[in-house]
Specification:
The chain is an all-alpha fold. Helices cover about 60% and strands about 0% of the residues. It has 2 domains: about 140 residues, no CATH class; about 90 residues, no CATH class. α4 runs parallel beside α6 and α9 packs across α11. InterPro entries: BROMI_C, Rab-GAP_TBC_sf.
């Protein structure tokens, strides 16, 4: 990947992560979450509607996919099918919560950027994307790469769900801050002086799967590295981005 960045892309990347996730999901020791049985059909989601935020996300994702020559003309329908089935599939593993927090009153706040990324990696094949996401959802890494996976989840303690704080924040983002203090103390101090937590920007990167921050090939590498080597590489990647931006951050702090 360092010598030839383009070598893991397109159909090669799709096949690689597909086979890798399938083998892990077949191994009892690697299955971290139970997923239940779910069969995606058009009839089940025919009457479902995406929220305005999701519809806007679909438009953006499809426009980006066409720009990258990964998607065809009717891709909107396929992505909507994926998102509606993901919502239905994940709902089977969610608990009912009565809370004044708005983020707990909706299926999942914001747009599902990870599912959209997989849809693009699979070149707009909705069936393939859904099959991959269902298998992927039983692995531990899904909790950190695919944020809607643990929204209101039965797999989390009730107190954690009630707090409305995602594990990506109190696990990944917490470790990023700890490592940043040790590895890049000047960057950590710069954030501290502004009163802005580095974990906030990291959660933004992670939630958006680095869309609008990295090139598509780098987004693919991020997803692949975390799947192949483990969710802790999400933390190392954020630290490496801060290292890359160190001079800019320090200059902006001085200014």
């Amino acid at each position: 990947m360092k010598a030839r960045p383009d070598v893991i892309s397109g159909t090669i990347l799709a096949e690689l992560i597909e086979k890798f996730v399938w083998h892990l999901s077949e191994s009892r020791s690697d299955r971290y979450f139970s997923t239940g049985n779910y069969k995606a059909t058009d009839a089940d989601v025919k009457n479902e509607r995406l929220s305005p935020v999701q519809q806007l996300g679909v438009e953006m994702a499809v426009r980006y996919g066409k720009y990258l020559n990964l998607l065809k003309e009717n891709a909107e329908n396929g992505l909507c099918f994926v998102l509606m089935n993901c919502e239905k599939f994940l709902k089977q593993q969610q608990r009912t919560v009565v809370s004044p927090l708005r983020c707990l009153q909706e299926p999942c706040a914001g747009y599902d950027w990870f599912a959209s990324s997989i849809f693009l990696i699979m070149s707009g094949d909705a069936e393939k994307t859904l099959m991959f996401l269902q298998q992927f959802s039983c692995l531990l890494v899904s909790a950190f790469l695919w944020l809607p996976r643990l929204h209101l989840s039965l797999h989390l303690p009730a107190t954690t769900v009630d707090s409305g704080i995602h594990p990506a924040y109190f696990c990944s983002a917490h470790h990023i801050e700890t490592l940043l203090k040790a590895e890049l103390p000047l960057v950590f101090s710069a954030f501290h002086m502004t009163g802005f937590a580095p974990s906030q920007i990291c959660l933004q990167w992670i939630t958006q799967c680095f869309w609008n921050y990295m090139d598509w090939s780098e987004i693919c590498h991020y997803i692949a590295i975390c799947i192949f080597l483990g969710p802790d590489y999400q933390i190392y990647l954020c630290i490496s981005v801060f290292r890359h931006l160190q001079q800019d951050i320090l200059q902006h702090t001085e200014a």
